[in-house]
Amino acid sequence: LVRGWTHLERQKGGIGLRGPGETQLETDRRLLGQRIKSLKKRLDKVRSQRDQGRRSRQRAGVPVVSLVGYTNVGKSTLFNRMTAADVYADDRLFATLDPTLRRLRLAETEPLIIADTVGFIRQLPHDLVESFSSTLEETRDASLLLHVVDAAALDRDELMKHVDDVLQQIGADELPQLIIYNKIDRLENVQPKIERDQQGKIRRIWLSAQTGEGLDLLRMALQEYFPEQLSAIESVN
Questions:
Q1: Average pLDDT score, the chain
Q2: What is the CA radius of gyration of the chain?
Q3: Beta-strand relationship, 177-182 and 202-206
Q4: Cβ-contact 68, 114 below 8 angstroms
Q5: What whole-number distance in Å separates Cα of residue 15 and Cα of residue 102?
Q6: Residues 6+ apart with CB under 8 A from 229
Q7: Cα separation, 46 vs 217, whole angstroms
Q8: Cα(158)–Cα(149) distance, rounded to whole angstroms?
Q9: pLDDT of 231
Q10: Which of 31, 101, 153, 208 gives the lowest tally of CB atoms within 10 Å of its CB?
């Protein structure tokens, strides 16, 4: 603002009078201050509505599965494939800024809730954490994180470390994770597969959100991860 009105500061009048540049600057500051207050009130209302939605889902016992990962790894494309949604997906930073939630049905049971969230970056600044607090809260309150990774990225291990750092920063580092190696269509001789740990639990899934290869494995993994939920629903039905 100061630089924007310097051309009017030369038009100052007599001694003791304020010039038109100074007056315009004060007016703009006041209007911007009012705009900021209005936006903060709207954000508080949105945050309150989302808190109510999360509490309702928790009371209903519906698990929430949150997609997390470095920016531009294909989270929104995977989200659209899983839920038949039309969330905006683009090859750029922060294509997703607002959390989007959709129902996902597994084996004709009551659905899970899938949440698409903002992509993380290196050393996410505190101001951005505040700006994205609503979408990050969906991550912190999830039952399971699907950590989406660009399998074709040369620095994928480093990017995974950055995502884990951000999860720790927002208090979500203790939540269970499934690692989703996406974009296998960009790799040679890599087929969709599931990798398990020594206890037989699923830890990593290789798939392509772009082509749809391996999505059946991801659905199978989610069914396996929430057996109590599905069993309880099946017994009621």
A1: 76
A2: 23
A3: parallel
A4: no
A5: 65
A6: 61, 63, 109, 110, 112
A7: 35
A8: 11
A9: 43
A10: 31
